[in-house]
């Protein structure tokens, strides 16, 4: 299996959830991810949905907390949840901050030292991981979607907007939609990408949607009681950008919900349905 190592496996909703590690040529070290294969995967190839997690997460948070497996089994979708950064790279200070370095790869290809030797999460998500999944799991490569939460919502939007031929449906929970304009994004981009802010634009969903658009409706859920909404997430910047270019956007402000997985679990069924319908149409 291509150097894939199965770390642990669990039966779930009639299917199986596996945690894997593999040597990544893109990130120059071991990377981990989780895959849920619903029962239908034993019979035939299925569409696949990538979930990118937020700051501080590993490949486990989504699988343990979102409650997605029930709906993946219902719709016949394979779920893939990668880790949020390289780990144990030996780069000095990688574990010092919760919003930078380990657990905070921001789904960019770092160009700055010392991060660039390992922190290549954009290429990992759009190239190495899909190739590895296609080689080892019963997926339909023409039916791939992507979604994510917070930093992972930013990653999902950027990966889909830049690669609509790979990721044919996209949605997000509480995404960072304008990283060039918020403290989390500015901190990460200045250190991963350097001070030339022109290079940041390629990783800003609100800029990208104006330049590139997307071929189908984007679904976003955002809690109104999310403590990160006004300073970090800046949801309205993306709404305005979509409006300016007539990009179909289903932005749902969910009253009283915060930033947690309790919020994600409340709306996960709608997101899997959104992807199942979009990918089924292909
Ligand atoms: N550590 C941060 C919060 C980090 C956070 O909210 N992380 C989100 C993603 S941005 C998450 O999913 N955390 C892991 C979890 O809830 O399982 C704080 O103290 O405010």
From TrEMBL:
It catalyses: S-formylglutathione + H2O = formate + glutathione + H(+). The keyword Hydrolase applies. Serine hydrolase involved in the detoxification of formaldehyde. Signal peptide: none annotated. GO terms for molecular function: S-formylglutathione hydrolase activity. The keyword Hydrolase applies. Gene3D superfamilies: alpha/beta hydrolase. This is S-formylglutathione hydrolase. The gene is fghA. It is an enzyme of class 3 (hydrolase). Keywords: Hydrolase, Serine esterase. Its EC number is 3.1.2.12. NCBIfam families: fghA_ester_D. Belongs to the esterase D family. InterPro entries: AB_hydrolase_fold, Esterase-like, S-formylglutathione_hydrol. It comes from Nostoc parmelioides FACHB-3921.
């Amino acid at each position: 299996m291509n150097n894939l190592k199965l770390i642990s496996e669990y039966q779930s909703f009639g299917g199986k959830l596996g945690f894997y590690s593999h040597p990544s040529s893109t990130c120059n070290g071991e990377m981990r991810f989780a895959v849920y294969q619903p029962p239908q995967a034993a019979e035939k190839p299925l569409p696949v949905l990538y979930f990118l997690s937020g700051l501080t997460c590993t490949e486990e948070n989504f699988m343990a907390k979102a409650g997605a497996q029930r709906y993946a089994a219902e719709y016949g979708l394979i779920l893939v949840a990668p880790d949020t950064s390289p780990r144990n790279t030996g780069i000095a200070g990688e574990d010092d901050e919760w919003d930078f370095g380990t657990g905070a790869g921001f789904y960019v290809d770092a160009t700055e030292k010392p991060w660039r030797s390992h922190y290549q999460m954009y290429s990992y998500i759009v190239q190495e991981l899909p190739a590895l999944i296609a080689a080892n799991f019963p997926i339909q490569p023409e039916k791939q979607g992507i979604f994510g939460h917070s930093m992972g919502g930013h990653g999902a939007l950027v990966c889909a907007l830049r690669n609509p031929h790979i990721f044919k449906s996209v949605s997000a929970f509480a995404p960072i939609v304008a990283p060039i304009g918020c403290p989390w994004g500015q901190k990460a981009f200045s250190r991963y990408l350097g001070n030339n802010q022109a290079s940041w634009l390629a990783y800003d969903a609100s800029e990208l949607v104006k330049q590139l658009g997307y071929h189908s409706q984007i679904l976003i859920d955002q809690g109104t009681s999310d403590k990160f909404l006004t300073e970090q997430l800046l949801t309205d910047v993306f709404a305005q950008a979509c409006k300016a270019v007539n990009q179909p956007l289903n932005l749902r402000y969910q009253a009283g919900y915060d930033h947690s997985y309790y919020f994600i679990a409340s709306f996960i069924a709608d997101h899997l349905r959104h992807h199942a319908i979009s990918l089924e149409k292909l």
